């Protein structure tokens, strides 16, 4: 009589058990990170890493929201961005609203290595507990093919400098003192597009894939020395980059929820709604999104998106 436990049935059972275990872990992890307030680290835990937080791209969107939320939780803030007038405005607002000390550093992150000497000098002698590598850009407004922008070579260099070089250089500046003190947190803002190649966002998604890979590797290298590296990979957040889309979560709410996950996970979409989006995107196979029909469907959606926002 043929055995009931033939190889094919055994493989099916093992696969089913693995999927069940994976689903159980996902649900359990989601509940632990987002739905158990008692598991969250408090503001004193955050401040214990150092008196200062440094935020790049700090005058708008997610960066501005992180700067204000970190100040609300008791940290002094170094704001780094391109516009001096916006920096001065946000510094005054943080001091007025949260009563914390601020410092501003003007820097254009599309520049090369030459900008980092001034940044390093501006951070000298500060006890930096948290670094938020937030600054980022797309190489063209809206969703378009690689060559559908003016001055392609310059735009591509700008996005690489802004999205990749800034993360590496800022980490290199701040990490040594964190290692010396045996504590510190580095938050690298990535994107949900990091997980797979994204037609019509080709370079942007590729730079965010770098951010994720870099963050995970550096986090593994320095975890034993007291430094936590967290990758935050949001989907749609209502910011200037997304034309303040009503589809996106509010930047202030996003920053608050994302900061609540510190100490609980090293990689997060930032909030519960984006975690659910990550789960749904998992079911769209790469082969389809990279196929001729997938690209056509994306182009159709992009044309409506770009027309709506005049891009």
Automatic annotation (TrEMBL):
Sequence intervals crossing the membrane: 12-35
The protein's Enzyme Commission number: 1.1.1.62
Localisation: Endoplasmic reticulum
Keyword Oxidoreductase assigned: yes
Record keywords: Lipid biosynthesis, Lipid metabolism, Membrane, Oxidoreductase, Steroid biosynthesis, Transmembrane, Transmembrane helix
InterPro entries, sorted: NAD(P)-bd_dom_sf, Sc_DH/Rdtase_CS, SDR_fam, VLCFA-Steroid_DH
EC class: oxidoreductase
Superkingdom in the source lineage: Eukaryota
PROSITE patterns per UniProt: ADH_SHORT
Keyword tRNA processing: no
Family, as annotated: Belongs to the short-chain dehydrogenases/reductases (SDR) family. 17-beta-HSD 3 subfamily.
Name the UniProt record assigns to this protein: 17beta-estradiol 17-dehydrogenase
Gene (name only): LOC101407377
């Amino acid at each position: 009589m043929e055995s009931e436990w033939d190889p094919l049935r055994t493989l099916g059972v093992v696969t089913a058990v693995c999927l069940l275990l994976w689903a159980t872990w996902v649900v359990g992890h989601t509940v632990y990170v987002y739905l158990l307030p008692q598991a969250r680290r408090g503001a004193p835990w955050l401040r214990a890493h150092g008196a200062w937080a440094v935020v790049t791209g700090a005058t708008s969107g997610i960066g501005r929201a992180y700067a204000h939320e970190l100040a609300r939780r008791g940290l002094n803030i170094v704001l780094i961005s391109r516009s001096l007038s916006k920096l001065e405005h946000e510094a005054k607002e943080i001091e007025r609203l949260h009563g914390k000390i601020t410092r501003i550093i003007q820097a254009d992150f599309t520049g090369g290595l030459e900008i980092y000497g001034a940044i390093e000098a501006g951070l000298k002698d500060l006890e930096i507990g948290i670094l938020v590598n937030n600054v980022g850009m797309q190489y063209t407004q809206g969703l378009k093919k690689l060559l559908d922008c003016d001055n392609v070579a310059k735009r591509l260099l700008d996005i690489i400098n802004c999205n990749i070089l800034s993360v590496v250089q800022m980490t290199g500046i701040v990490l040594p003192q964190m290692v010396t003190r045996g504590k510190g947190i580095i938050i690298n803002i990535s994107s949900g597009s990091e997980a797979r190649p994204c037609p019509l966002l080709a370079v942007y998604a590729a730079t965010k894939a770098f951010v994720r890979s870099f963050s995970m590797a550096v986090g593994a290298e320095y975890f034993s020395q007291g430094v936590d590296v967290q990758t935050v990979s949001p989907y749609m957040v209502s910011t200037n980059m997304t034309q303040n889309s009503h589809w996106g979560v509010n930047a202030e709410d996003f920053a608050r929820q994302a900061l609540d996950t510190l100490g609980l996970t090293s990689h997060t979409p930032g909030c519960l709604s984006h975690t659910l989006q990550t789960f749904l995107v998992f079911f769209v196979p790469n082969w389809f999104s990279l196929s001729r029909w997938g690209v056509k469907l994306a182009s159709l959606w992009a044309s409506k998106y770009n027309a709506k926002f005049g891009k």
